[in-house]
Write a structure and sequence with these properties.
Largest sheet: 7 strands, mixed
Strand order of the largest sheet: 1-7-6-5-2-3-4
Order of helices and strands: HHHHHHHEHEHEHEHEHEHE
Number of strands: 7
Strand content: 5-15%
Number of domains: 2
CATH class of the largest domain: Alpha Beta
Shape: globular
Length: 286
């Protein structure tokens, strides 16, 4: 996805929050902010790709502050929020055991995102509200048909916490007699899920785990490992969670492979690009 004008202040908001998490050194914050402003002034323009710029910015913050995981505390909070709500979400999906309920649960997990929504967001209320919403874009019929005609599914994970609800959906996907491989980040960036995060909630009990080989926000084809590219090519279908993966996949040649984006449209640029309202639930075949 290309940047929209609103992405500029969002980058600066994320940079401030990440710097406050990464270091208490005010002089260092100023120096890193100067670097980020220079980077954005040189690279933020019409046609620039949003998750590429976001990745460069957060890598700059990690490198310059020496903090490899500024969102480490938020990772713990995300898991705590998800695990707190898991029994209620499980109760809701069991009332209607169809695939759509599990897809909505996975999207409800997608709102656990301090990067897109900010550190002061009320995640608990957002989860409850999201679970009640229907899909504004609903390609679930195509997704179910693709599942029936596939043997392997590549599931692109998004955030810590969110993967707790992904586990529910993946269990449901397995009923279609498919092998599911979950791709996670090689190293921390924002509150994106890495393999240790997945292991901590037992995601390996229901799926194979793989690394994208990088710490990019979403997928950036030129940045991921050759092993991940081979996995992407070999998989019969792809289910991608969240904004970062949507931003990256829309910049890639996906060919005829069934690729589905599962997200909550948490910001105006993403909502506008899809043709929905902010806060809408989306299940879109790309």
């Amino acid at each position: 996805m290309k940047v929209h004008y609103e992405c500029a202040p969002c980058f600066l908001r994320q940079a401030r929050e990440a710097l406050d998490l990464a270091t208490d050194d005010e002089d260092l914050k100023m120096k890193v902010t100067e670097k980020i402003l220079t980077m954005l002034s040189e690279n933020f323009h019409e046609g620039a790709v949003s998750n590429v710029l976001g990745t460069d910015m957060h890598r700059t913050i990690k490198h310059e502050t020496g903090n490899r995981d500024p969102y480490s505390r938020e990772r713990v909070i995300c898991n705590e929020i998800a695990l707190k709500f898991l029994p209620e979400v499980e109760r809701i999906v069991k009332e209607n055991d169809g695939l759509e309920s599990y897809l909505k649960a996975a999207i409800a997990g997608n709102v656990i995102d301090f990067g897109a929504l900010g550190l002061n967001s009320d995640m608990e209320s957002l989860i409850t509200e999201t679970m009640r919403k229907d899909f504004a874009v609903d390609d679930s019929g195509e997704l179910e048909e693709a599942l029936k005609n596939s043997s392997t599914v590549l599931y692109l994970a998004d955030n810590v916490g969110e993967i707790v609800f992904d586990k529910l959906l993946i269990k449901k996907l397995k009923e279609y007699d498919v092998k599911v491989t979950v791709a996670l980040k090689e190293k921390p960036i924002l509150n994106d899920a890495c393999i240790p995060d997945a292991l901590s909630i037992g995601l390996d009990e229901v799926a194979e785990l793989a690394s994208t080989g990088t710490d990019s926000i979403g997928v950036i084809y030129g940045d991921v490992s050759e092993e991940f590219k081979e996995l992407l090519q070999a998989s019969d279908m792809v289910i991608a969670k969240g904004l970062g993966n949507y931003e990256g996949l829309t910049e890639m040649d996906l060919g005829d492979k069934p690729v589905f984006s599962l997200l909550n449209a948490k910001c105006e640029p993403v909502a506008r690009s899809i043709g929905v309202a902010v806060g809408d639930n989306v299940l879109l075949r790309l």
